[in-house]
Automatic annotation (TrEMBL):
One Pfam family named in its UniProt record: HTH_26
UniProt domain HTH cro/C1-type: residue ranges: 15-64
Cross-referenced PANTHER family: DNA-BINDING PROTEIN, DNA-BINDING PROTEIN-RELATED
Name of the protein described by the UniProt record: Helix-turn-helix transcriptional regulator
Highest taxon in the source lineage: Bacteria
Amino acid sequence: MDTEVIIRLDVMLAKRKMRLKKLAELTGLSEQNLSLIKTGKAKGIRFSTLFLICKHLNCQPGDLLECNFEDDYS
């Protein structure tokens, strides 16, 4: 079974009307790392990073992450 976690950072940024550059400034995280997370190219994410993103987007981890179970039922 392949694990597929979908990142919804782009959706939350749009809901908050915030650009990635602004989130980078607020969190102190690099725009490049946030871009990797946003595009789903990051292999993982630290809880501390997730906390900072959630704190500044005023959301919960579940708002940013979604599991895709489609392959489990095919």
